[in-house]
Amino acid sequence: MSAAPPARTDTPAPPGAVVLDFDPARDGFSFPNRFEWTDGDLDVLAGALRPLAALPFALGGALGGRFGGGSDQGGAGTAAGAAVAGGAGWAVGGGLVRSVARRWPTFGLCGGMALAAVERWPARGRVATAALEREPMRALLRRRQEATLRASLPRFARYWALVRFTPGAMPHAPLAGALAAELDRVEAALRAGRPALLGLVGDAPDPFTLHQVVAFGVDRRGRLDATLQVYDPNAPGQTRTITTGGAGAGRTAISTDLPTGRRADGRVHISTRPGHLSHLFVIDPDA
Fold first, then answer.
1. What span, in angstroms and rounded, lies between the C-alpha atoms of 117 and 126?
2. Among 8, 14, 117, 132, which residue has the fewest nearby CB atoms (within 10 Å)?
3. Residues 20, 4 contacting (CB under 8 angstroms)
4. Where is the composition biased (Low complexity) (predicted)?
5. What is the distance between the alpha carbons of residues 106 and 85, in angstroms, rounded to a whole number?
6. 46-68 b/e with 16+ CB inside 10 Å = b?
7. How large is the average pLDDT for residues 108-121?
């Protein structure tokens, strides 16, 4: 990926802020993070499901589809989406995989979409990411999803468990030190001219309802006080924001205009609280 100017030329960044010339309407995908099963997907899924040494990582193998799944997918269909992308899971036969997966018509690949958007930016002489069509990109997105899962699953699982099972961890998670370090990483990446791939963690009772986005702007006002501009694969063409802060006693306060909370069908996306996150962290598939 070639280097790029770290800030927009049309809107100078104020002190403490940097905004890359990443436009979700141009540099993100124009289709939403919702995929219907194909025979090829099911073949990959059947081959990807392998036994794991411990149940938490068996669950973790499914995490990515739901991480990748975002708000528009449901149930085990999106958990299976992770395995489509290479996550590990339970050892089951191909016929069983197909019959279970077919119960959920869609799955998500938000990690693959986010990473591919990062890797294609800036297009410069190539077809813009927004002009790419879903089906020709499908195999690439599966591979890039696999890369994000290899890099992030243990951290996703650890942070989710800490938030979910630490008494009094909500609404403000005891992760101020970790959040400050992650904001340092985001700011460093953006100042170096690179968008940052982020994992988002909440307190959803289902560990599979987590998500990945691309940060392309940050206004850092203090150690924990920042506003991030992000591309969300669930919202083609839109810029969404995440605002971080401290809540005292080493706790975090993170708000967002990404749709979190309980949906009309009763499922929870990322967090039980609308407009709330517990933690975010940078994912580096090359680390």
1. 13
2. 14
3. yes
4. 244-254
5. 14
6. bebbeebeeeebbbbbbbbbbbb
7. 95
